[in-house]
């Protein structure tokens, strides 16, 4: 789990919406980028910061190579 603290109200709201809708969220902090599901958002006692806990998603494997489409026009005789 990744714990992140923010004082940005807009970012806290964005992360709260991602948690509510069960969408992954991306957070950049000190050169590290973490993408995962938001587990909790807790407002600090001072009320000026939020502590966010994120469960990172497993990295996606490379997609298999797709076949190339054939390069022929099937309706070419219609134009002759």
UniProtKB/TrEMBL annotation:
Organism: Bradyrhizobium ivorense
Source superkingdom: Bacteria
Protein name according to UniProt: Uncharacterized protein
